Amino acid sequence: MARPDIRRTVQTKLGVGYMTRGLNTSSLIAFDYAISGNNVTGYTNQIQRGFMPAAGRKPASSPWTADNSLFISWIGINDIHAGYDATTTINAIMRQQQSLYDVGARNFVLINMPPWDRSPMGTYGSQPSISH
Questions:
Q1: In this predicted structure, what is the pLDDT of residue 2?
Q2: How many domains, the chain?
Q3: What is the pLDDT of residues 79-131, one digit of tens each?
Q4: For the residues of 22-80, what is the DSSP string, one character each?
Q5: Residue 55: inside a domain
Q6: For the chain, is the Cβ count within 10 Å smaller at the N or the C terminus?
Q7: Residue 102, domain extent
């Protein structure tokens, strides 16, 4: 059941729901496990507790294959902001990519974080709140 206190990416113009309903004209099944504001721990939970026990099992209701699927991960900025160790974070992300690969995913897009000084939390007034 969806939690009303969590802002899912489907509610934004960058979200999977917007793109598949608003921009797509073909028959398409989309799974969006993204939760705005998550870090690598949440990302791990989205894959292991959301995707794997459901669509990861390739049920008849969602017959995805390696040839007809694209797995997009947009990650990084919440981990950097929270001050997590980059090596630990990247290793955790790559473990999740491997788990997706292990169940048949073959097409991946990893979207990294934007320049920090251009993000809402990276600026405070007219001066960047973090230096490079």
A1: 43
A2: 1
A3: 766 667 878 888 999 999 999 999 999 999 888 766 666 666 666 555 544 44
A4: II--S--------BTT--HHHHHHIIIIIITTTGGG--TTS---SSS--EEEE-SHHHH
A5: yes
A6: N
A7: 9-116
